[in-house]
């Protein structure tokens, strides 16, 4: 569909821009640092080749599986700073005492991009430091394990207590690995290595705590992990809440302020909005389906001169509750409640799960029809016998079935309006076939 192609092009353009930026930073930092240090040319070539090879495979993987891309400028800058600092510390690591502070780049990527993506970069840093220091395989493995744990848990530092627990765990792992490397002989070298590594770990944890707690980049809705934490919070809510109770919570809230704040639906419609990223992470095929439905809803609403932003938001998140929890859709509703979704949009989204479906507004009707038509067309495309069925026939069947099932019963829709609505869908899909 045309919406998919547009989004794919936008996504691929962002990957290309990010790839060029990281290639330039990598080659520049490595080359300039080694020139200033008068390092051997073979090290410059080897480290550059490792960086280029890893970045090439990383962006190929990113493009293939369409993983989340960092968007916020502030976050990009922080990741680039951490990435550059790691490269510099790796290149000078054979001139100073070994400390794990060079892992700061992958830690920043975990905090401001994605934890699993940061592990890939950490792997690259481990190989680079093995080339610079000519260290043994077990030391590389030690560095990887330590950084792996940091990348996974750095985003969990929400208090000094959490930081303390993580510090104890990492120091324990650090001591065990040092003992293994020293053939389980406990001597002064193990104590010294553990102490230095512990100091480096503490520095990284302090930086992570400071950046996640006190440094506020403009990222109210920039992290998938924020949605995850809210999801966990929502799962702890009483699962006996039903949709009527959720709706009651909205009615008891100050919705005039909420609707005024979000009347242009700006944050919710941003492609880096936290709940949209969460939906993409959990069900990428449903994410693209939602984009198609949302675009179609906007066009239909604009044609009918109704609230096109409301229709677009409702179409975009129409499956959100089911994606979050298929068994208990109130969890998705709780998440929307946490993020101040306007009540009209939530009403339409929750109406999707009523049986029988009886939309209470024209915007809700547009969402129902658009979703039904796109789903039917996509389904028949996968059916070898019916993939060539005309879109006009599909649309006629969808309208007839919904008319028979009473989809239009709660709306005062004239025959003329009904025909106008159907004609728009027929014209819209004519160009796709």
UniProtKB/TrEMBL annotation:
The chain crosses the membrane at residues 20-37, 43-62, 74-93, 99-132, 139-157, 163-182, 194-215. The keyword Membrane applies. Keywords: Membrane, Transmembrane, Transmembrane helix. Residues 286-353 form the HD domain. Pfam families: HD (PF01966). The keyword Membrane applies. This is HD domain-containing protein. It comes from Anaeromicropila herbilytica. The lineage of its organism: Bacteria, Bacillati, Bacillota, Clostridia, Lachnospirales.
